[in-house]
Structures are given as structure tokens and as C-alpha cells.
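User: Could you go from structure to sequence for me? I need the amino acid at each position, not a summary. C-alpha cells:
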């Protein structure tokens, strides 16, 4: 399983990466399903791989299915499906497809390096 940091590796090298972060309201049950699934995947992280091949082929609008391989949008679509979050996404989702989901709220837009996680302290 891939773990990325905004101050190391790829994002440190590409420090001018711009991002948009959205929030989407889900039920408590859906949230718990997503949280549980991410925890299970983390516990079994050696079984999961970043799907660079799938990402490249998706850019050509060709679907490839490999068990336990994910790229970003495929991962989010998978979690939505697991949690029964019914949003209209194409078979091969792109980041722009997520921006069309009704009910999104923009949380942040700017350089990834400048994003600060808000805590409820």
C-alpha cells in the first residue's frame, strides 16, 4: 500500500503541485464502512500495490482489472462502492469525474505544500 507525504518523495520533488480537496457528507454507517475497509487494507498492506499500469491504460480509456491493485480514483470509487455511496461515476473514473458529484463542498484549493489539516481541538 502506498503512503505519500507532502514533504517527502514525489511531492517534495514537485513542490508546486496544486490540489483541490473536497468533502462529501456520508452517513455514520457509510463512514464506518470506509474506515473499516481502509484499516483492513492497511493491516494487509503488503497485499496491495499501486496500479501504475492501470493508471496508464486508464488514460487511454481502457479498463484493466487486477486484484489488489489501485490507483487514486479507482481506490476512491472502490470505497464508495463498498460503502453503498451511490454516485454516478464512469467505469474508468478520472479526477474530473469526482468534481461533478452533487453535494461536494470545496475545502481547499492551492499548493499541496500549503495545506494544513484542521483538527477539532
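Assistant: Here is the amino acid at each position, in order:
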Amino acid at each position: 500500500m502506498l503512503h505519500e507525504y507532502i514533504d517527502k518523495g514525489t511531492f517534495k520533488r514537485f513542490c508546486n503541485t496544486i490540489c483541490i480537496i473536497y468533502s462529501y457528507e456520508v452517513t455514520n454507517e457509510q463512514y464506518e464502512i470506509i474506515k473499516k475497509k481502509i484499516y483492513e487494507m492497511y493491516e494487509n498492506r503488503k497485499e496491495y500495490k499501486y496500479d501504475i499500469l492501470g493508471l496508464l491504460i486508464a488514460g487511454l480509456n481502457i479498463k484493466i482489472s487486477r486484484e489488489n491493485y489501485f490507483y487514486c480514483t479507482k481506490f476512491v470509487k472502490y470505497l464508495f462502492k463498498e460503502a453503498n455511496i451511490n454516485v454516478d461515476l464512469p467505469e474508468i473514473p478520472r479526477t474530473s469525474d469526482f468534481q461533478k458529484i452533487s453535494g461536494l463542498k470545496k475545502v481547499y484549493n492551492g499548493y499541496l505544500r500549503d495545506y494544513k489539516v484542521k483538527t477539532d481541538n
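One structural detail worth keeping in mind: Helices lie at 9-13, 28-43, 52-58, 72-82, 95-98.
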